[in-house]
Amino acid sequence: MLLNRLHHICFVKASHFSSSVVPSTNWEKLIKEIGLIYERCKKYEAGEVATYIPQLRNADPKLWAISLMTIDGKTASWGESKQKFCLQSVSKPFTYAIALNDLGDDYVHRFVGQEPSGRNFNDICLDKNKKPHNPMINSGSIVVTSMIKPEWTNYKRFAFILERMRCFASGNELTFDNTTFLSECETGHQNYAIAHYLKQNNCYPTNDDLSNDDLMELLKLYFMHCSIQTDTEVLANMAATLANGGIEPINQGTVISMKAVQNTLSVMFSCGMYDNSGQMAFKVGLPAKSGVSGNMILVIPNVMGISLYSPRLDVYGNTVRGVKFAEQLIDTFRFHLMSAGHHRCSLCSSRGEYVDCLRSSFSIRHSYLYSPGQEICVHSLNVLSPFS
C-alpha cells in the first residue's frame, strides 16, 4: 500500500545501485569547482574579527578553510582545515537537536518559538507568546540548554552534551577551549541579562525552582558548549550527520531521529544566519548556521555537509567569506532546495544503471523503504541534478 501511494518516483533494488552518492565523474567536477570558489572567496577581505568576546579578537583574519563530507563518507578540504576554533553559535543546532530527540518537539516548543526574530542574535526580547523567538539565537539556546538533563550537575551535563556532539562527529575528537570559556564568563554581561530576563518572564521549564545560583550555573553550561573546539574537517562530519538524517556517515550509527533532524534543519533554514536568515534562504536555499568565531555549516540534505571558517564577520555576525562561498556554490550547482532540477537521475550510472525519472518532490531525495524480505531504494530525480 505504501508503494502505491508514492507517485512519480523511480524504484531500484538495492543490489543494483552504486553505494556512492556522488559518482566519480561528478565528484571530480565538484572538487574542482569548489576549489575555484575557495580561491575566489579568498580575495574577500571585508569584515572584522569579533571583539566582544576578548579571546576571539586574537583570531588571524587571514585564515580561510573549507571541508566537506558526503553522506557516504567522502571528504575534501581546502586551506587551513586543521585550524582549531570554537563552535560558538554553531553549537546551537546540535544542542537543539539533542533536546528534540530526547524530549520531543511538542515539549521543546512549549518554551521556544520557531520564528525569525528580526533582531540581533543577543537582543533581550521575546515573541508575542512570551517565549524566545527560536533556538538559534542566544535567548532560545539558553532555554534549550536548560532542558538538557536539568537534574544533573554541570560537569555531568557538559560531559553528556560533549559526548553526544562527538557522536555527530562519528567519534572524532572535540576539545574544550577553557580560555574562551573563562573570557565569556567574565564579559558575557548581555547573556547574564538575557538569562535573568527569561527568568523574570517564566521562560524556563523549571522556572520556579531556579535560584540565582542555578542561573549562573546554566550560563556556565551555555558558555561551555559554545566553547567546544574543533576544525572544519570534524565539523563537516557533524554537518554530514544532519544531511544524512541523523545517521553519522562513517560508522552508520544513528545519532538522533529523522524527525529531530527535519525540525533542526527547518529552523536552521529560517533562522540560522541571524538577521540575514531571510536573504540566505532566498539566495542560497540551504539550511545553514554561523557562529561569531567565523565558522559556519551548510547542510545539503541527502548529499553532504560543508563547514567553513574565516574570522572576518559582516554586520550580521556571519563570516563574510562563508556567505560568499554559499552564494557562489548555488551559482555553480543546483543545490538550492527550491530549484526545479531536471527530469533525469543518474545516481546508478557508475554501475551502468541509468534510470529515467519523472519530476518528483524535492522532499524525497534519497531514502530507504523496506518491504518483506526486500530493501528498496527511492531516488528522486534531482539528487544529482546539481552536477548536470
Automatic annotation (TrEMBL):
Catalytic EC class: hydrolase
GO molecular function: glutaminase activity
Secreted among keywords: no
Reactions the enzyme catalyzes: L-glutamine + H2O = L-glutamate + NH4(+)
Top-level taxon of the source organism: Eukaryota
GO biological process: glutamate biosynthetic process; L-glutamine catabolic process
Subunit structure and binding partners: Homotetramer.
Family: Belongs to the glutaminase family.
Protein name (Swiss-Prot/TrEMBL): glutaminase
